Every structure is written in C-alpha cells, then in structure tokens.
C-alpha cells in the first residue's frame, strides 16, 4: 500500500473511447447503446478537457507533464502540446501501445516502457526500458519466509499453494473454470481464489451450497496482501494485465496466464504472447478454457518442479528492481533539459 502524501489534486474531464476486441456480430447491437453512443458524447468531454487542461497548465506552469497512459491523460497531453517549454514523458506498461500513448508518442520527449525494447513499437531513439514500478513487498521469498507466511494461513509446508487472481473486477470465465475443476484441484493443493468484488457473492453462493464439493477452497472478494499470497504460492493463475504480471516477475513464481480477449487493442493477448514466446508463463486461451483443461495444466505443472523454476526464472527477467527510480530520474532529467533551453 502507498503511504499517504500531501499532493494537490486537480481534475479535468476526459472522454473515454470504449473499444472492445473480438466481439461477435450480435455484440455490436448491445454496444451501440453502451459504447458507441457514449463514445460520441465523450468527444465533447474530451474537447472540454483539453480546453480546461490548457488553462490549468497555463496557471500551474509545470516543468514536465508525465502521463501513464489511459484515456484520462489524453486531454492533458494534447493541451501540453501548445506550450513550448512543457515536455511530455510517457510510460507504457503493455506490449502493445494504448490509443492515448499512440497519439501522444509523436509529441513526447521521452517514452518509458515496461517491456524490453525489442518488443516496443515506439521510436527507439527516445524510448527506454525501465520496467513497471511495483511495491517493495513484491520480492522473492526464501524457504523460511514462505514457511512463516504459510503458518499464518495454517497451510503445511508440504502442501502446494495455488493463487487465482482474475483482476480487480474478477473474471467470470476463470472463476467458472476453477469451480468446475474442484474438488480434484483441491486434492492437489490449497487454493485461494480472488473472485473479484463484482462476482464474489455469486461464487460464494455456489461454494456455500456445496460445502463438501468445495471443502478447503478459500474464496476472497479482494485482497490487500497480494504480495504475501504470491510469495507463498507455487502457481499463480491470472489475467495478463501488465501490473499483475510485473508483480509476479518481481516475486518470481510460475504462472498460468489467461488473457482477457475483449479489452481494447486486445492488449492482454499481446502481453501473453510475449511471455509465452519467452517461456515465461503457460498461456491458456479463454475460448478453450474448461475446468478439465485447467486441472490438467495445473497437475502437469505441479509435477514438473524444473519447469516451474524455469518459468519463474524467465519471468523474473522482465523485472527491473529500481524501476520507480528510473522513471523518476527520466522525468527530472527531461525537466532539467527543458529548463536549460
């Protein structure tokens, strides 16, 4: 968790362009009302956001504008273009650039990326691989440290531990596959499933109605102690969100990645392809995901200690320990260089 800081906050409107990959033809009818019409009206929000950002930058006189990506940064970045001594620094965590960063990359002085440069689509002359900043508590656990954490959760050192994280909102497909794989999965290991706040009650209802079938399954809505659970786990089953995978790379744990196929630019699939290509994780497609397939994949991975160690080692190569310092130093240098012009 971040420590509280006394930092001023000023807001501007930002229009969101709702875009989803791999939609079936009939999905477009539903999205006409939930995506396409709101997208049209959000263009006006974007325009107002640029207008408001211009006057905020004029008043605040920043030395640098730092944008982490996402639609919220677009109006500020576009407004910063109008100021000669207001350089832009971007950070992109994903293997595939998002729409905001693609637009602003033309005007950025420096671009920090979370993936190695050979996978970057940005101008290499102004791009630097800095990794993705994660909390200091995400670090490899020694055997003794694992033992202490497992004792806290009353888990034997001899029992494998599987952690399932479907992202902040959870993932219906992953939750369903885990429920289908139980109780056979529970015979293999202690399982912690973070179902997400949206899906927690529906999952908990199924588990509570069948206590014998789901004996031992730990269903959680949300976790604050993510690092602790990752550090004691033998396998983590998760989406391909860049930050979650960055945390896993910092801890060094074998992972089964199931990318969401519906997000903008299909960026999770592209992240997953990168990790699979580098033998850093096992990747399963959501379209082919079943309880049986998940169980067989976990069973094979638990049997192969060498493969687990290799996956963890290869994933750890994506972690840069001082990532936050590198980003901060980049921002400072860009600001200093601009001040000297």
SSE topology sketch:
Layout: H1 27-60, E1 65-67, H2 74-80, E2 88-92, H3 99-104, E3 110-113, E4 127-129, H4 143-152, E5 161-165, H5 172-181, H6 184-188, E6 190-194, H7 200-209, E7 218-220, H8 226-232, E8 235-238, H9 242-251, E9 254-257, H10 267-277, E10 282-283, H11 291-303, H12 305-316, H13 323-340
Give a description of the structure.
With 341 residues, the chain is α/β, with parallel strands linked by helices. The chain folds into two domains: 27-131 and 321-340, Glycogen Phosphorylase B (Rossmann fold), CATH 3.40.50.2000; 143-316, Glycogen Phosphorylase B (Rossmann fold). It is 45% helix and 11% strand. It has 13 helices and ten strands. The strands form two sheets. It has a six-stranded parallel β-sheet with strand order 7-6-5-8-9-10, sandwiched between helices. Helix 7 links the parallel strand 6 (190-194) and strand 7. The two termini are 39 Å apart. The mean pLDDT is 89.
Number of beta strands: 10
Would you list the SSEs in sequence order as H and E? HEHEHEEHEHHEHEHEHEHEHHH
- Report the oligomer: single chain
Mean pLDDT over the residues: 89
Report the C-alpha radius of gyration, rounded: 22 Å
- Low-confidence spans: pLDDT under 50, at least 5 residues? none
Into which percent range does the helicity of residues fall?
A: 40-55%
Indicate the structural class.
alpha/beta
CATH superfamily of the largest domain: Glycogen Phosphorylase B
CATH topology of the largest domain: Rossmann fold
């Amino acid at each position: 968790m971040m420590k509280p800081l006394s930092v001023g906050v000023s807001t501007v409107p930002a229009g969101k362009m709702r875009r989803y990959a791999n939609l079936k033809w009939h999905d477009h009818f539903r999205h006409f009302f939930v995506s396409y019409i709101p997208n049209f009206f959000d263009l006006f929000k974007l325009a107002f956001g640029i207008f408001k950002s211009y006057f905020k930058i004029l008043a605040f006189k920043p030395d640098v504008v730092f944008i982490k990506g996402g639609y919220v940064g677009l109006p500020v970045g576009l407004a910063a273009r109008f100021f000669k001594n207001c350089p832009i620094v971007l950070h992109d965590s994903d293997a595939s650039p998002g729409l905001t960063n693609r637009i602003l990359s033309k005007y950025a002085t420096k671009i920090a990326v979370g993936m190695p440069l050979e996978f970057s689509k940005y101008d290499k002359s102004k791009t630097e691989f800095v990794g993705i900043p994660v909390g200091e508590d995400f670090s490899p656990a020694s055997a003794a440290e694992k033992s202490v954490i497992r004792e806290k959760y009353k888990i034997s050192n001899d029992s494998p531990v599987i952690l399932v994280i479907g992202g902040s909102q959870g993932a219906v497909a992953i939750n369903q596959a885990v429920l289908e794989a139980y109780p056979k999965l529970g015979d293999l290991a202690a399982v912690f499933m973070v179902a997400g706040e949206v899906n927690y009650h529906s999952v908990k209802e199924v588990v509570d109605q069948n206590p014998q079938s789901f004996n031992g399954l730990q269903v959680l809505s949300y976790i604050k102690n993510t690092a602790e659970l990752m550090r004691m786990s033998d396998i983590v089953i998760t989406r391909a969100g860049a930050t979650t995978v960055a945390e896993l790379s910092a801890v060094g744990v074998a992972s089964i990645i199931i990318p969401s196929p519906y997000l903008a630019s299909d960026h999770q699939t592209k992240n997953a392809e990168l990790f699979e290509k580098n033998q850093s994780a096992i990747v399963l497609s959501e379209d082919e995901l079943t309880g049986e397939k998940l169980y067989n994949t976990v069973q094979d991975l638990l049997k192969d200690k060498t493969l687990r160690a290799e996956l963890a080692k290869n994933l750890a190569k994506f972690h840069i320990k001082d990532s936050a310092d590198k980003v901060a130093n980049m921002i400072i240098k860009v600001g200093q260089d601009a001040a000297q012009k």
